[in-house]
Amino acid sequence: DAGVTQSPTHLIKTRGQHVTLRCSPISGHKSVSWYQQVLGQGPQFIFQYYEKEERGRGNFPDRFSARQFPNYSSELNVNALLLGDSALYLCASSASTGSGRETQYFGPGTRLLVL
Amino acid sequence: QKEVEQNSGPLSVPEGAIASLNCTYSDRGSQSFFWYRQYSGKSPELIMFIYSNGDKEDGRFTAQLNKASQYVSLLIRDSQPSDSATYLCAVPSGSARQLTFGSGTQLTVLP
User: Fold this and answer.
1) Contact call for B43 and A107, based on CB within 8 A
2) pLDDT cut 90: percent of chain A above it
3) Strands (DSSP E) along A8-100, which ranges?
4) CA distance B28 to chain A (A)
5) Statement: residue A98 has pLDDT above 80
6) How many other C-beta atoms lie within 10 A of the C-beta of residue A83?
7) Residue A66 burial by CB count (10 A; 0-12/13-18/19+): exposed, middle or buried?
8) Are B93 and A94 in contact (CB under 8 A)?
9) φ/ψ bin of B9: left (φ > 0), alpha (ψ from -120 to 50), beta (otherwise)
10) Which residues in chain A are closer than 8 Å to B90, comparing Cβ atoms?
11) b/e string for B65-95 if b means 16 or more Cβ within 10 A?
12) What digits encode the pLDDT tens for the residues A18-49?
């Protein structure tokens, strides 16, 4: 069975540009979460979607947005890129959400470099 | 105080030894705890989860939870060089029960 897939794997952008990252969850999983991981730190929560509805949002500026599609895949959009947005962007899927006991499985990530 | 704290290391142990990784958390209401392993340049991979006080064993890995002390640990027995990685402790929090991660402990197992 395929795990969580993300595209693209690597991306180089310049300041001020826009980027769209994509994620497909494990088959049967309805929840997708996005995390940002900068070098030397643990992943930081950005968004969670379940059944196409936003269930949670982390402490990120409005330049960050996301959505989930009917097939449960998801997109993360970042506008007006800053140098500080350079990071590994991780997508995680889980079967459900809310209880705190759901296991989240991570995709391989998209490494974004902003020049 | 950070919600989830880990010693950043680096922690070095000889091959065959027991590696002990520690994590403390601030929310007394936390009910579940996850350990992820992350190799350099890769994404986090789930190793274990634990919900109840006490020990949970899976192969060479043992997770230990002490809710009274707000402390969770991961023991790796018979450490191998392939265990060299960063180990992340994560606790569900917030309205979406999203994972809050510690900064990770870098483990090196010396041959």
Assistant:
1) yes
2) 90
3) 10-13, 19-24, 31-37, 44-50, 53-57, 64-68, 74-78, 87-94
4) 14
5) no
6) 10
7) buried
8) no
9) left
10) 42
11) bebeeeebbbbbeebeeebbbbbbbbbbbbe
12) 999 999 999 999 999 999 999 999 999 999 99
Interface contact B78, partner A, CB < 8 A: no
Which residues of B1-111 form beta strands (DSSP E)? 4-6, 11-14, 19-25, 33-38, 45-50, 54-58, 61-66, 71-76, 85-93, 98-101, 105-110
- The structure tokens listed for B82 are 């392939």
Q: What is the mean pLDDT of residues B53-71?
A: 93
CB contact under 8 A, A33 and B98: yes
Structure confidence at residue B1 as a pLDDT band (50, 70, 90): low
Residues of chain A contacting B34 with CB distance shorter than 8 Å: 103-104
